[in-house]
């Protein structure tokens, strides 16, 4: 066996505890949890240094599309590696970044013609915010000093200062308040999810009206309106009512406010179409893509822009209209090669068809939980599922935060060889769009057992 000897495993665990500061992880508790140390991946499974296998129930934090160690993507990266691993996009170009840009322009809504590369979802959002800001100061119709961004409450757009500013998940935002810039937000049309059905329709209508109100009141001050199309992922898979995205697009278009669609989580098949915008025929002015763009292999992100936005950045170099943004590893050729291979596989293996099919499997298999005394809601859009726990359904009584119910379910699932990820009292399931039906059934079975145990 090529798994490690016990002494080496203990050493790794010690060094992990002593030196690795894990993201979004309470580090005091982490030490005692003996979290898996992953050494390899095979299909939809992760294998740790002790040889234990885990079904990857969250697509490696929502980015994996085709499984791990996929020969076609490995080969594409190896081929590119034989040419060059990295070269800059600042003032020059590289073959895979050009080819990927062309593919993305052909695939995405036709309003989007320009591709700006970065490395993560957060930076794709950060770039979109700066583009929108600068656009108003440089547009041909005359400069405007707009000072706000419009957002949806409970949004998550990343963890850099700009992307945190336009998000508002309380758990992640309490600490950094004073570092952030100002936004105006509309209530999430999904936050009314636990209202009784007789009031729900009226509340949803109110949410539609709120978009109109905000735009009437602040429209001329808004640099852009930012939205996670169809579903707010990190808020716990909060699904928007049909027509909401289209409504936001109509109103922002009429008011001349650029719309930023953050497709970082939903892009590349997760909601059952290549991009979520397609489902409401929405053409954004800016679109952010990351996570699944490389099939979950390498850190590549893009901000796509319309020709109108892009052209405000043209002019004599001395005029200072350049977009002043760009990271060292922007448009990395290995990442772009992986992305091209992933796009080929999406088509060749009919992955989106599979995503639609397994969305049905998730819905059927999780039916059992609908009557569970501690499950208040199962929210689902395509392959994205959030299961929320409460102490009591009627009357509605939540658990104290110290109970960490999502975390407990995650630990119980891990013992059973399945990786999940908690968000407070919600546990998220996000099988890769290409996961076969039998594995999705196994995932659901283990989730149900783990909820019962926890
Ligand atoms: N936008 C959305 C909608 C996301 O769900 C995420 C991550 O979960 C991000 C942005 C940030 O992406 P990253 O973690 O790659 O910076």
Provide a quick synopsis of the model.
InterPro entries: Aminotrans_3, Aminotrans_3_PPA_site, BioA, PyrdxlP-dep_Trfase, PyrdxlP-dep_Trfase_major, PyrdxlP-dep_Trfase_small. It catalyses: (8S)-8-amino-7-oxononanoate + S-adenosyl-L-methionine = S-adenosyl-4-methylsulfanyl-2-oxobutanoate + (7R,8S)-7,8-diammoniononanoate. The protein has 454 residues and is an alpha/beta fold.
Describe the model.
The strands form 4 sheets. Strands 4-12-11-10-7-5-6 form a 7-stranded mixed β-sheet, sandwiched between helices. A 4-stranded mixed β-sheet has the order 1-2-3-15. The chain has a 4-stranded antiparallel β-sheet with strand order 13-14-17-16, with helices on one face. The mean pLDDT is 95. The protein has helices at 6-19, 27-30, 59-62, 71-81, 95-107, 121-138, 161-165, 170-173, 197-218, 244-255, 307-311, 333-348, 351-365, 405-415, 437-453, and strands at residues 38-42, 45-48, 53-56, 112-118, 148-152, 183-186, 222-227, 231-232, 238-239, 259-262, 286-289, 301-306, 375-381, 384-389, 418-419, 421-423, 426-429. The two termini are 34 Å apart. The chain is an alpha/beta fold. It folds into 2 domains: 6-66 and 350-453, Alpha-Beta Complex (Aspartate Aminotransferase, domain 1); 74-348, Aspartate Aminotransferase, domain 2. The protein is globular. Helix content is 38%, strand content 17%. The chain is built from 15 helices and 17 strands. The structure holds pyridoxal-5'-phosphate.
